[in-house]
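Hi W.,

Here's what went into the run:
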Amino acid sequence: MKRLRLPILMLLAAAYAPATTMDYLSLEELISRATAIVRGKVVGCEGFLRGPGVSTRCVVQVLEQWKGPEAEQWEVILPGGVASGRRQSVPGAPALSEGSEYVLFLWSGPSGETQILGLSQGLFVLERDEAGQEQAVQAVPADAALERSSGRLVTDRPLRLRLAELRSRSRAAAPPRRETQ
Amino acid sequence: MRRRWLGGWLLAGLALCLAANAWAHYPFLRYLKDSPPYQPAPAKFDLEALPDAIVPYYIVRPLPTLDSAQKPESLVAQIRQAAEVWNTVRTSRLRLRFGGIIDAPAGAWPTGIYIQFAELEGVLARGGPVTLDTVVQRGEDRFFPIQTSLIELPADLRQWSIHSDEFFLTVVHELGHALGLQHTSTSSAMTTAATRTTTRAKPLGADDIAGLSLLYPAPAYETRTAKIRGRITAGGAGVHLASVMALPPSGDAVSTLTAPDGTYEIAGLPPGLYYLYVHPLPPAVNQVLGPGDVVLPADPGGKPVPAGPPFEGVFYPNARSTDAATYVYVPAGNVAEGIDVEVNLRPAYKNYSVATYGCPGTYCLQPAYVNRSSKRDYFLAWGPQLTAGSEMAPGLSVATVGGASVILPQKTKVYQPFGPDGFSYLQLYLSHHLLSGPGARHLVFRFQDDLYVLPSGVHVTDSQPPSIASVEASRDVEGRLLAIVRGSNLLPSTRILFDGVPAPSAGFDWETGSLTVLVPPAPSGHRAVVVALDASGQTSLFLDALAPPVFEYPEMPGYSLRLASSAPLIAGTDAMVEVTADQGATFRTGWTELVPSTPNVTVRRLWVAAPNRLLANVRVSAQAPSGAVSFSVVNGLRADAVGGSLQILPAAQGTLSAEPNLVNPATGRRSVYPGGEAWLRIPNLPGVASAEISIAVGGSPAMVLGVSGERVHLKLPAGVPVGPAVLNITVRGQPLPPVLVALDPPSPVVRAVTTTSGSLIPQQAAVRAGDFLVIYAAGLGETDIEGVDILIGGVAHSSIWSYPVSRDEDVRALWVVVAPNVPAGSSVPLIVAAGERLSAPHPVAVAAD
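Here's what came out:
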């Protein structure tokens, strides 16, 4: 059989890839592309109408900040929610529960609005493993994702690692910096 | 292979009530009750509240940043063509219509779909429907009406090729969400990324079509399709949100998810044989979210109902391979009941995802297409559990569903293109049954401790993908711009797109294998990516993706557009609009759209009366503020403003407006013809006598036969040509805004119905379910035979074969097979329906089985 130039497989798959609505982000990409990484507790969430849709504004009280400008709180906008008798459902959108703690990879765009990076990819739920150690588990289904750049199917999802490791990797890649006044 | 049939199985009559989840695919769902039967209510557009069941979609400014090689008109064209994909579903009565590029409305956003460009990072698209919290009930139908749907694409599209199938299929997918469809696992348009196998040439699967059709059914839809019902349990307890997939031996899979008590109903199934495969969805980490990125259904209080635990995948009734599985047979209009499966729970979900790749040329790519007439009768599969080093995983077997094509285990090998430390692929060879046809094959991966099915994991074809070598400009005798497309594997049936816009065929040269097409309009100098699509689902991008051919437009004639009248539009009414252009315009159905500058005005229907003349009926919203409205015409890849504007005026007390859809009193359908009778509705018509109304159609007077409430019974003038005609109405001396009415050719006529041996029915013979009928019908004209339905006792049939009998009299013979759900009787009505044009009923005798 003639050998196939399979390295081209990965490039071509990106040029001719099945449609995807999410750009798969590895942990390294989450760390590098986030404008802030925090461990925080959700103080409250409220839906509001915006244009033809509904968004949810959640206030996160910062417990630890691992990257980005330091702040006591972050206002995070999530797609979808309930407001004024209207409900918008957004498949794959993250959900935050009041009173719960998470690790959030945040991204603030040119408008200054802050959202969770990569839909639910930038949201980590905190659990304890069998040894009682704190674990951070990525809030995505255990499903395959397509890495667009290579066409590779990524199946080791969700990411699951010790909180301490996540903390050290996040800080090592991008130590927190102060906003200049 | 041992198979057990359930032919003639527990066939129940068609149920009008939705027992459990009666969805193929899965909508955004809320339950109205806490206990069985739960009364599921989906989110969907209220088509009764939308004129002509049209859902408008808009692109909201600002437009995204594109790289210098990509133009906004190309972006708009790709989005429009993605919307047209959903309009091809004949069994759904919903239609999408482009409402234009608009600024965000100042006040309320009218009902429709809005495509916006937003700051997105790590996300290529997102969105979903916005529903009111109030349930609407229409007969047996309960739903939460979608008010608006929002689709967000990135504001910076420079890193994304808008010509790619990836972009196109992403928009198709998001429009599916906007219409009320959720994710599915059937490798169709609504499947999430990794395992979707649709292409631009075949962008929808049976599951998508069923999902849309069940939400917005066309008449007699359910008579064509079948259902499977049952319950999924574990230890006797129902499993919520288990995926139940109906897999035909050939054809696309259709699936649904179970209700909280484990019950399910897969509806919208093409009649036939199915394996049933039950599998869990990948669980969510966050319990308020659904598995597999499915939005959880909500209970009556609005709380999400959590999914059930993971379990081992299994075939009905309890098999780990199709060898031991049992087919379920369901004829049209029937329900196979009691297809229950007891599953084994497992402590954790196991991810067995597999991606498959075809290798048509130098490259390998998704989806996997295999040309069985070539030497490359293989495809590649990759998944984390498929290999162990340089060997196939122990205990793994791979098979297809059905016997049309089989995998040759003795030829299966591991392919490691990057050496032993890189990725390992399975190289799987196929052998094909002599009598099998091309099409999708479902793959079954059986592991030591589990089962994974990849629907449509490989597509078998008889040809290589089309490939374009050159696109050369030319002109026809009328001076229209043509293109001669040369390449490989081009056929008369090959479709050519310019930046996504269809280029109609103008001829095929069998000697050179080249296609001549009519080039869609575009601005001078525009560079359009040219793509070829074949009937098997392959596209020229399979081979040309890295360097697709580009057509550079020559100097194109400019033309100006103007409104033919300046009569104001009245809020809350319908009116006609006419646009004319200079010579040089090439309006064409499929290319051309009239777009108002405000969503408060919607185009109900557009006619291309001539290459330089457009006629349209528009509806002005009752909430439309006073002010000017302008129009533009999108034609292929160009958009031009129409000179002039119309004023919207508030409705005065007692303003009347005619409903432009005339109804045929004999059929109840919206098809009337010159010389025939029609019902005209004038909402809020005060009690008037016939003599107080005067009506003209196409300038000729129509006879008013009677008035009953809002309905006027009239006889249309005989001499008016078929096509759009202006309807002028005066009530008590006051003229109503003119509208356009569509005059069709006369209804088809059934001349005779016979058996295949020529015996007349009912005079000489009766038929039974499964028998062939030959229907001799006149007056079908140019109607595409695919658009002709034959209703027998209310059950819809499609013709399996058709041929002209007499060209002089325009008589065609239509062959149909009598469906099993046709009621028996000595005088069962048979009607030939060409769209809305229905023949008079012709009696046939149907014998009971």
